[in-house]
Amino acid sequence: MDAGPDRPTDAGIDRGDAGIDRGMEARPDVGMEAPAEMRPEPPPEVAPEPPRDAGREVVDTGPAINGCLRANWTIAVNNICDTPDCAGLTADRRDPQGAIDGDPVTRYSTGRPQGSPVDDEMVTVDFGATVTISGIRLVSDNGDGAVAYRVEYSTNGTLWRRFVPDVAGPGGDILPITFPTTDMRAVRVLQTGTSATNWWSIHELTLTNCVN
Questions:
Q1: Fewer Cβ close by (within 10 Å): the C or N end of the chain?
Q2: Buried (b) or exposed (e) across 74-105, using 16+ Cβ within 10 A?
Q3: CA-CA distance, 144 to 191, in Å (whole number)?
């Protein structure tokens, strides 16, 4: 028998259905939301790390002190000019500050003959900060310079050290004193000689090759 063109078979329908089924099986999740228990959890929130200085009190210490500037120096002496001979002297001719004020006319003076058995004749200058120097210079006049001297230094202004070998020797009115380049906070000069007629006076104390 001749099937003829008017009798379609079921083959096309079956193939179409099969095509639809295959498409649905290939994309099962299209348009569907995954169950809540299958969703990945978001990463935990991490608190920002506090600044390194958090909780610390910030103190403004101001500008650094320049120990090479005499304005930052302080001076201490073992003998003040308090003898009867000092009574007629003005303060700028006897007080310790006269040795470090930058004025060669003013001076510090002990007011007693050098080597008097009252106390060590000693002048200490604290620079207010650590400096590096290779010497000091003492200026006096009229024979009032130290007859002899020894120099010591301190790195903290409290504990004192002698140079090795000793920095010591005969004195004079113009007295440049050199020593190995040294870091120090303070320096002190001891007058170790004897004079029956001359006081010990210092018109100026200066530093050699000072580096702050």
A1: N
A2: ebebebebebeebeeeeeebbbbebbbbeeee
A3: 11
